[in-house]
Amino acid sequence: MNRLTIILRRAARYVGTPGVVGLALLVFCAAFYASALAPAEARSAQLREENQVLRTKLRRALARVEAPQQTPAEQLSAFFSRFPQSSSAPEWLGKIVEAARRESLSLDQGEYKPTRERTGDLTRYQIVLPVHGDYVRLRRFVADVLHEVPYAALDNVSFERQKVSDASIEAKIRLSLYLEQAQ
Known about the structure:
The chain is of the alpha+beta class. It has helices at 3-65, 72-81, 89-102, 135-148, and strands spanning 106-107, 111-116, 122-133, 152-160, 169-180. Helix content is 55%, strand content 22%. Strands 1, 2, 3, 4 and 5 form a five-stranded antiparallel sheet that branches. The N and C termini lie far apart (107 Å).
């Protein structure tokens, strides 16, 4: 017999059957806690945190829902009121010209034509810009215009190059600028 077996038998005689059963239960409980209860407690803590985050999101969403509801006509009016007045058209056109100047692009004679939209209180300025320059500068120009003039929409861009070896491109850029109709 090996030494461990001898020690266990002596201990069993010393504590008796109830002691051995108690010791076995103690070892079983420690193993059960380490394998089942500790991971469950960690998962429970994680779920409590997720619950708190979801409750916060729910409170925010309910606060938005509980705000006084507008009628569709009021919503439409609020939408159109976010556009700048058509009297500010020269300012917005100036930003377009400034974006071209920053990219060292030559803006030849541009055209713009205001038209009143059939629905809503908007005036649409249809802008056609013939532009000369290299492709990278043209792309940056269009991106700058759309970033700095949030009420502009890019309708069309067409590129033309006289020869394949030319670095310069002739482009025709069509934009629409939407502004609130003067009352």
